[in-house]
Amino acid sequence: MRCAILFLTLGVGILPAQVNPASQAARKWRETHERAIVGEFFDLLAIPNIARDRGNIRRNANLIAKMLEKRGVKAQLVEHGPANPVVRGEILTPGATRTIVFYAHYDGQPLDPKEWATPPFEPVLRDRSLEKDGRVVALPPAGTPFDPESRIYARSASDDKAPIIAIVTALDAIKAAGLKTKSNIRFVFEGEEEAGSINLEALLAAHKDLFTGDIWLICDGPVHQTRRQLVAFGARGVVGFDVTVYGPRRELHSGHYGNWAPNPAMELVRLLASMKDDTGHVLVDGFYEGIEPLSETEKRAVAEAPPVDVELIRELWLGSTEGAPKKLVELLQSPSFNIRGMASSRIGDQASNVIPSTASASIDMRLVKGMDHARTIDRVVEHIRKQGYFIVDADPSAEARMAHPKIAKITGREGYNAARTSMDLPISQEVVRVVESARGPSVKLPTMGGSVPLVAIERAVGTRTITIPIANHDNNQHSSNENLRLQNLWDGIELMAALLTM
Q: Residue 175: how many CA atoms within 13 Å on its side-chain side?
């Protein structure tokens, strides 16, 4: 009784891990096929997958389709207009009354190979993380277990090819154990999520009959920082833009012209500082208007989430956090304003004593439900205008630059809104039960911090979405030296087997 009371107090249910027959079968299968699983994963990771690289994107799509067909899954590439191919698979189950759709993406973030310890499309195994001085090691021979704390390093090892290999391996395990699916199953693997999923909604809407489902399970993102399984019922939206401000026509000697010619780098710093205070609060007028409040169930889930701030502060060497004393899990339920990169002239050994000609910044804003991405951008542009800037969408002419003391070029503006599924729905509660039957107590959150095009999916095919990630939280997602902890892959295989048979 004491254990049951403890679990209920934590809000995580009372089911222990590994009571799910499919996840048990997946563990047994994996334990005898680890080398083959990692070998197949390496083959997939070796294909470059930047969305604009259309040739290699198609190579990825073709290989994934073959991986599905190898498991007896009917697979096809669905294309529409300029969109990269979506790999679609389907399992029809006799007598099924519902359809479950599994989503992941096979494209990855752009990169600079010079920033990687090893080439990003030459996957390697390290005995531990690079931060702990992990060494590249050879794959053990077939039949020899892998160290579960070792890590695979490659672009998209975690974001987001890991769920694809977990799913196909789970299909192997289910078949070998003689287990059957109870629902119709569809797989949707997108090829331009990291480019903003700009064509996804149109593609889904144009082929709606191929993609409908009662629930879409979004297999993207990291598990909770405690390594407990995360079940997220929504994701923040995202919108980004680039801003460039202008100084002299050409770079000028800082001694001859300093204190006279306006410095665009200094102007940009002042402009960006005007948008956010020291606590992280965004100062743009109307930025927080229209936000849909959390329900009582959602507030309770946030309050019950395990605290991780102290451990993360130590892990990340932080001297302070924005928004304190609020915790990370609370702040993820709010919108954010982030400078993701800045550039002006040169620095370090390449620096010159000059006044730069231009200065640029790239911005992303994470949105919560109730915010509109286009309206949010408009509010930011109006804020820039109020700081005395003349707004343009292309490099200004000489006449324009001399006519206006301050000019800001705004480009980009791509994005999508947030979405959130009710945690009180029967399907939501069923997903939690199945997840916990495979992985034990989970962390349940109304919204995860990252962005996935949930709203495009929900609008296009009239469904609901729940996110079930598998990657480790310290995977260097979107950065150099992206990695996947082996135990996260093993756990993901067991989780996908349970969800495939729910």
A: 11
* Partners of 126 in beta bridges: 136, 151
pTM above 0.70, yes or no: yes
Q: Whole-angstrom Cα distance, residue 426 to residue 415?
A: 31
The secondary structure of 311-373, three-state, reads HHHHHHCCCCCCCCCCCHHHHCCCCEEEEEEEECCCCHHHCCCEECCEEEEEEEEEECCCCCH
What's the whole-number average pLDDT of the chain? 95
The residue among 131, 119, 130, 123 whose CA lies nearest residue 152 is 123
The DSSP letter of residue 471 is B
**Start-to-end C-alpha separation, the chain:** 28
> What's the token pair of residue 404?
């206006």
Q: What 3-state DSSP class applies to 71?
A: coil
Of the candidates 497, 502, 499, the one whose C-alpha atom is nearest the C-alpha of residue 175 is: 497
Indicate if the alpha-carbon torsion angle 5, 425, 451, 286 is positive or negative: negative
467-484 pLDDT, tens digit each: 999 999 999 999 999 999
- Please give the full DSSP string across 115-143, using - where no structure is assigned: GSSS-TTS-EEESS-GGGTPPEEPPPPTT
What are the chain's domains? Answer: 2-220+419-500 (3.40.630.10), 238-291+334-416 (3.30.70.360)
Is 372 exposed, middle or buried (CB count within 10 Å of its CB: 0-12, 13-18, 19+)?
A: middle
